[in-house]
Design a protein that fits this description.
- InterPro entries: Glyco_trans_2-like (IPR001173), Nucleotide-diphossugar_trans (IPR029044), YkvP/CgeB_Glyco_trans-like (IPR055259).
- It comes from Francisella noatunensis.
- This is Glycosyltransferase.
- This protein is α/β, with parallel strands linked by helices.
- The protein has 5 domains: 148 residues, Jelly Rolls; 82 residues, no CATH class; 128 residues, Rossmann fold, CATH 3.40.50; 160 residues, Rossmann fold (3-Layer(aba) Sandwich); 225 residues, Spore Coat Polysaccharide Biosynthesis Protein SpsA, Chain A (Alpha-Beta Complex).
- It is built from 25 helices and 37 strands.
- The chain has an 8-stranded mixed sheet, with helices on both faces. It has a 6-stranded parallel sheet with strand order 14-13-15-16-17-18, sandwiched between helices.
- α1 runs antiparallel to α4, α2 runs antiparallel to α3 and α10 packs across α15.
- The radius of gyration is 32 Å and the shape is globular.
- It starts with 8 loop residues before the first strand and ends with a helix.
Length: 837
């Protein structure tokens, strides 16, 4: 066994996850910091203040495990290796972090885990491109902890590494070989049991005891022989169960990574959203679709026995039937696919009754084009038909003999598909979620899956196998051996929603790739979460999202796309933001619901909430900037109140100057310069007619999508107040654009920049502003937070804070040099390309 002994624990700065952690200075805790150094033994004792956090790094150098220069101290091979850590703790929480670097010592991945008292045996997965690592500890709380010792083990004698590797390569394949042989024996056993010879032999043995019954059995054997002697459903199920049991035995499993799990995504975060449309709709749907549609109307899930009472009591205006196999948690199981069978009578009676009552019956086949024939019989009985595959519209019209057939694509639900994530969870590189299909009818899908996985296996790839540990039929659903080591488990959809937000790249494969409108619903959902997608070919994705999704035809293109995404975070963030905007504008289930209403003749429509902008100014030279900020806005429902806080203005001239802003009604108020800034805002708030009020400064720049993006954020966040903490600032004195509070986007927060506050009108009228010329916005936020209102920091784009050379021209003053020390990423001049997205 090769062992490396850790050297003195020192404190270093390093980026872990999304944030830069501040490391405790050793000198600050010198009296409370003790290192005992025995042969092969290292302990650390820390005494902390209440609920504090301390980080320690083991050694001040990188351990490079792919060079000979280590002098055999740290024998770690590429792949999985083991760390043994003994821990003694009084109180508090201890975690370990391992950060991996490439040959330029840039971080490419990290792994962390909670540690407990006693012996901790940890598996660490080194990414393929990693060349070195560093080891860190994080201690939270108060108390003491002791670590002794730390072993890095490979069980390899490096004096004869080549011969040992040969042995290890043979050993690592033995379980795989045994598993394959066991599965093959199961297949042969079942095949023999259902063979013609075996059946005839059993029949002959029974002939003496039950001659009449045996002749019937012989007829069945003859019939089966003519059909090619296929396995019966029972035989297939027995084989699947046997293979499943083998796969669940750890000793027979392929080499794989440690299982990765995510918590269930908190969809509504305590919110109780009102339906988008105040209309009662009776539905039969599968769970996925109902989860996405349920916030758009008052949905009544029909019960097989009580549907008539439900329709009458709830004054239903629409019966919405989705191509469902189980339907409302099994209430209508298989009735749609067996519509003409006797057991589907309740469904036929439901449709007949709804028509008699004048309730329009809508059928949406989300399974097209693959399962067109499975659902065509129920479609014939419905008034309106919607399909995910536009190319099937002609086929429907021929089959149902009417023209009420339209396309209806998948979409995203902003309340559950959005960029809000748990920043305490780690973010990984590349993910694929799905199953392997090894059947002739899925040959294209198998080929496409290999394309994306082969292109990603050199990265830190995680595969969530939908059939992992499943008891269902998996004889044709097992990933090939070369992908097995990347499997990290399986996730239910409510956990997959969390995973969406914690990968830098998501891989997508389309079973249907020639359709203009049908492709994986996951693409809409991921883009709404701000996650880059690398996909195999799809005409639909190409038509809608070619600017945002990397569409690849081979593994080299996949690999290049992944590398480009991981190495260009700035450009990718811009693209992600544009993709989110596109989805929130055009591809939400609100939009899909409105489309249904339009096509069937119901009058319900989406309406843009009105926004009132308020700008207070005492500087004539900024009127042009105020006008430009308003006139460029892409949002359609805006009114503006301009408050002139000085008697020197000619209010009539200002009104005339601002009167020609297209689609915006501008009101001008004027007050003496002795009236405080807070009072000016309050006077404007009192006459505001909008649903929201946006506070806009006169000297800053607001991009054309500033208000539109904020309204989208209101829809998905459920916040009461929206704004930006992470912002861009231009300093005229330096002629540079900087970033401030980087990483404070897409999260609920206590503070946002005053010039970006957009609040529900009712809240701003309730709280108001204090009568001050400085700090009035800060007071507003503090009071709003104390009353339980939610503040959300959205994206950093489309707002540029301008700082002139003269600090006297600003109400917000500070020491410039000290302020710049806390800013990041300076770029020359006014960098609109970086800010306006």
């Amino acid at each position: 066994m090769s062992i490396v002994k850790p050297s003195f624990f020192v404190c270093k700065q390093i980026s872990l996850g999304d944030s830069d952690f501040l490391w405790t200075n050793v000198e600050d805790v010198d009296k409370e910091f003790l290192v005992k150094d025995f042969p092969m033994y290292t302990s650390v004792f820390v005494r902390q203040g209440e609920e504090s956090i301390v980080y320690y790094t083991m050694s001040d150098k990188y351990f490079d495990y792919q060079t000979v220069k280590l002098e055999k101290k740290c024998a770690i091979s590429e792949g999985t290796y083991k760390v043994v850590i003994n821990v003694k703790m009084s109180t508090g929480i201890l975690e370990y972090w391992v950060v991996f670097y490439n040959n330029e010592y840039k971080k490419i991945s990290h792994q962390y885990s909670r540690m407990y008292n006693g012996k901790n045996t940890l598996k660490i997965n080194a990414p393929a491109k990693s060349k070195s690592f560093r080891f860190f500890f994080k201690f939270t709380g108060s108390g003491n902890f002791e670590i002794s010792p730390v072993y890095f083990s490979t069980f390899v004698d490096y004096d004869d590494e080549q011969s040992v590797n040969v042995i290890f390569n043979k050993l690592s394949k033995q379980n795989q070989v045994l598993r394959d042989k066991a599965i093959e024996l199961c297949k042969k056993s079942i095949a023999l049991e259902y063979s013609t010879n075996y059946k005839l032999g059993r029949a002959i043995m029974q002939l003496k005891y039950a001659p009449i019954k045996t002749f019937g059995v012989l007829k069945k054997i003859r019939k089966s022989y003519k059909r090619g002697n296929p396995l019966t459903h029972r035989g297939q199920q027995r084989l699947s169960d046997m293979v499943g049991e083998i796969m669940r035995l750890e000793s027979f499993g392929y080499e794989s990574r440690s299982k990765i799990d995510f918590p269930v995504y908190d969809k509504l975060k305590g919110l109780k959203p009102k339906p988008t449309f105040d209309v009662n709709i009776a539905v039969i749907m599968d769970t996925f679709s109902l989860d996405s549609f349920e916030y758009e109307a008052n949905f009544i899930k029909l019960n097989k026995k009580e549907w008539k009472r439900q329709l009458i009591d709830n004054q239903v205006e629409l019966l919405f039937l989705e191509s469902a196999w189980n339907g409302n948690n099994g209430q209508w199981k298989f009735m749609m696919t067996s519509y003409d069978k006797p057991f589907a009578k309740p469904l036929r009676e439901l449709i007949k009754f709804a028509k008699a009552k004048g309730i329009p019956v809508v059928f949406w086949n989300k399974e097209d084009p693959t399962n067109f024939d499975e659902f065509i019989n129920i479609a014939k009985d419905c008034d309106f038909i919607f399909t995910t595959a536009a190319e099937k519209i002609k086929d429907y019209k021929r089959a149902v003999n009417h023209e009420n057939v339209y396309s209806l694509m998948f979409a995203a639900q902003p309340l559950i598909h959005n960029p809000i994530k748990d920043t305490k969870l780690p973010t990984y590189d590349v993910c694929f979620a799905g199953s392997w299909y090894d059947k002739p009818e899925f040959e294209d899908r198998k080929k496409f899956t290999s394309v994306v996985l082969d292109g990603a296996i050199e990265c830190d790839l995680h595969i969530f196998d939908r059939m992992y540990g499943s008891k269902e039929s998996i004889t044709n659903r097992i990933f090939p051996r070369k992908y097995q080591k990347y499997i990290v488990g399986s996730l239910e959809y409510d956990k997959m929603l969390t995973a969406y937000r914690h990968y830098k790249v998501f891989l997508n494969v389309n079973t249907i790739y020639k359709s203009q409108t049908m492709f994986s619903r996951r693409v809409f959902e991921l883009l709404a979460c701000g996650t880059p997608v690398v996909s195999t070919e799809s005409r639909g994705i190409e038509r809608l999202f070619s600017e945002y999704v990397s569409i690849c035809n081979n593994s080299d293109e996949v690999r290049n796309s992944i590398d480009s995404i991981l190495s260009n975070p700035k450009a990718i963030k811009h693209k992600n933001h544009l993709a989110m905007r596109e989805v929130f504008l055009e591809h939400t289930y609100s939009k899909r619901m409105e489309r249904i209403f339009k096509k069937i003749g119901l009058s319900y429509r989406l309406e843009d909430k009105k926004v009132t902008t308020i700008t207070v100014t005492n500087r004539i030279n900024y009127l042009e900037n105020i006008k430009n900020n308003l006139s460029k806005q892409k949002y359609n429902n805006i009114e503006s109140i301009i408050v002139l806080n000085d008697n020197k203005f000619n209010a009539k001239e200002v009104e005339d100057f601002l009167s020609n802003i297209e689609n915006i009604n501008v009101k001008v108020l004027q007050y003496d310069e002795k009236i405080s800034l807070g009072e000016c805002f309050n006077n404007a708030v009192n006459i505001a007619n909008g649903d929201y009020i946006a506070k806009m400064d006169d000297d800053d720049y607001y991009g054309e999508y500033y208000i539109l993006d904020a309204i989208n954020a209101f829809k998905y966040s459920g916040a009461d107040i929206i704004g930006k903490k992470h912002i861009f600032i231009y300093f005229e004195e330096k002629d540079c654009t900087y970033e401030k509070y980087k990483g404070a986007s897409y999260k609920y927060i206590d503070f946002i920049t005053g010039a970006t506050i957009i609040s529900k009108t009712s809240i701003m009228k309730e709280i108001g502003f204090v009568s001050k010329n400085t700090g009035e916005d800060t007071n507003f936020l503090i009071e709003a937070k104390s009353r339980g209102y939610r503040i959300y920091s959205t994206d950093p784009y489309n707002f540029l804070c301008m700082r002139r050379k003269s600090m006297e021209s600003h109400t917000w003053t500070f020491n410039v040099e000290q302020f710049l020390n806390t800013c990041d990423n300076p770029s020359n001049s006014i960098d609109f390309d970086r800010v306006m997205v």
